[in-house]
Design brief:
Organism: Catellatospora citrea
Protein name: Transposase
InterPro entries: IS402-like_dom (IPR025161), Transposase_6_like (IPR052909)
Radius of gyration: 26 Å
Order of helices and strands: HHHH
Oligomer: single chain
Number of helices: 4
Helix content: 25-40%
Structural class: mainly alpha
Strand content: under 5%
Largest sheet: none
Amino acid sequence: MARGDLSNAEWAVLEPLLPAQPARGGQWRDHRQVVNAICWIKRTGSPWRDLPERYGPWKTAYQRFRRWAADGTWAMLKKQVIALAEADDDIDWDAQIDATIVRVHQHAAGARKRGSTVTNRGHARASDAPAAG
C-alpha cells in the first residue's frame, strides 16, 4: 500500500457501497486498486497516462472514473459516505479559509506583459487625430 492509498478501515466503509461485479461479461479489475488509482490522479493532478504501474492500466482507471461519473455512482457514493459520517457524528461542517494564502498569477491580475510598452497598437482614437486648423 502506497502513501495516500485507502486504509483498510476506509476500504471497509467504501467496499459495500460500490457496484457489484457484472453478472455477464469479463470481470472488472479490483475496485480497491482502481479507486486508489483515481485518488492518486485527483490528488496529484497528473495526466491519466502518468499513472504508476502499481495501479494497473491507466485506461482502466480512466474508463471506470468516466463510467461512474456518467451513471451517478460517484454522487451516490458521496451522499452515502456523508450520511454515514453524520450518523456517527464524525463530520464537522464548520470550515475556515484564510484568504491571505490565495495568490493570483500576475497575468491573471492584469499586470503588463514583460517588454510590452505600447498599448492599443494600431488603433487610433479620435483624440489622437491632428487638430484641424
